[in-house]
Amino acid sequence: MTRSNTDDFRALFLSEAPLMDVRAPVEFGRGAFPGAVNLPLMNDIERQKVGTCYKLKGQQAAIELGHQLVSGKVKAQRIEQWAAFAAANPDGYLYCFRGGLRSRISQEWLATEAGVSYPRIVGGYKAMRTYLIGVLEQAIAQCRFVVVGGMTGSGKTDVLGQLDNAVDLEGMANHRGSSFGKRVAPQPAQISFENALSVDLLKRQARGQHAFVVEDESRLIGSCALPLPLHQAMQRFPVVWLEDAFESRVERILRDYVVSLADEFVAAYGPEQGFEAFAQRMRQSLGNIVKRLGHERYQRLAAQMDEALAAQQAAGVIDLHRAWITGLLHDYYDPMYASQREKKGARIVFSGTQAEVVDYLRRHCV
């Protein structure tokens, strides 16, 4: 049975339908949907040439040039890739930017050259993207949100991990959210981050969730910016404040930002090269806030970090890292977060330990 083209974006995202994106790689790199596979009709150079031709000579000339550039073996290889995707994903769909010429050509070539009838998404990437922007705006307007705040290292992410209705913004951004939060793997493109967030909220609402818990974030999570409507709304949402002892916070930072990050680098690059890359990342992260620390404090913390990294590399000893972590909390993070807590005071509806906060959220954010 031949499946029809579709513009039911909600069903597409909820069913996690396989998506074949025939846009050029540069377009895909700027933003994509979760799980989409890029199998372009034209590569970046071909697309650029066709675009220039379109501006100078019009659509028909551009179409003719496109057929010249994508012909023979090149055309056969691309059709073969599409046919393989269709065979592996019989319930999928293909699309281009606006659901227009490129997706129709790809669909036609699949049918005439490979005998494969494969549906396309009407309106393409642009229409799906517009739909997801609406999903986020609707969720902000109609759902309840609670923000988990707390000092650096207090375990806000650990709280989210214990809640079914937590929206892990840092997980989606692949960044821990501080100057030291950059991970080994790169962050997603901004638009891909936004798309993933909207799809997650769509799925949660479809499961009956209409109250969500998010971690308190600044506008930027590394290179990913929170969508402006969400960031603005987070300044109004009620806040639950997580309390934890200073020593526990130091140990959590040591675990997450030193031990775990070093393990990530070693797993990615091997023991020697991995540790060198980890050490470089740590020094770079501290260097990123040198202006805010001031030269004297930065020099002191940098010396402590160098000593700790040398001991860690030589003997696997991590104890010396506590010195610069303690100094950084006292001199930089704690004063900043104390100021933020004071500004958020009127919105704080509960404060307590991790167990108390988790219990409160399970009972009141449903």
Structure notes:
With 366 residues, this protein is an alpha/beta fold. The chain folds into 2 domains: 9-127, 3-Layer(aba) Sandwich (Oxidized Rhodanese, domain 1), CATH 3.40.250.10; 143-366, Rossmann fold (3-Layer(aba) Sandwich), CATH 3.40.50. It is 60% helix and 10% strand. It has a 5-stranded parallel beta sheet, with helices on both faces. A 3-stranded parallel beta sheet has the order 2-1-3, with helices on one face. Helix 5 (72-88) packs across helix 6 (101-114) and helix 7 crosses helix 10 (190-206). 31% of the residues are buried.
Topology:
Elements lengths: L8 H6 L4 E3 L3 H6 L6 E2 L5 H14 L1 H11 L2 H17 L4 E3 L5 H14 L9 H19 L1 E7 L5 H5 L5 E2 L1 H5 L16 H17 L4 E5 L4 E2 L2 E2 L2 H7 L4 E4 L3 H24 L1 H17 L2 H4 L1 H21 L5 H23 L4 E5 L1 H11 L2
Parallel strand pairs: 1-2, 1-3, 4-6, 4-9, 5-6, 9-10
Antiparallel strand pairs: 7-8
Helix pairs in contact: 3-4, 5-6, 7-10, 12-13, 12-16, 13-15, 15-16
Radius of gyration: 25 Å
Tell me how many strands there are.
10
Q: Which CATH class of the largest domain? A: Alpha Beta
| Average predicted confidence as pLDDT | 94
Task: Categorize the overall geometry.
Answer: globular
The profile of the biggest β sheet is: 5 strands, parallel
N→C terminal distance: 43 Å
% residues in beta strands? 5-15%
Strand order of the largest sheet: 5-6-4-9-10
CATH topological fold name of the largest domain: Rossmann fold
Query: In the residues, how many domains can be counted?
Result: 2
Number of helices, counting only DSSP H or I runs of 4 residues or more: 17
**Secondary-structure-derived class:** alpha/beta
Topology pattern, helix = H, strand = E: HEHEHHHEHHEHEHHEEEHEHHHHHEH
Oligomer: single chain
Would you identify the regions where 5 or more consecutive residues have pLDDT less than 50?
Answer: none
Task: Specify the CATH architecture of the largest domain.
Answer: 3-Layer(aba) Sandwich
Helical amount among residues, as a percent range?
A: 55-70%
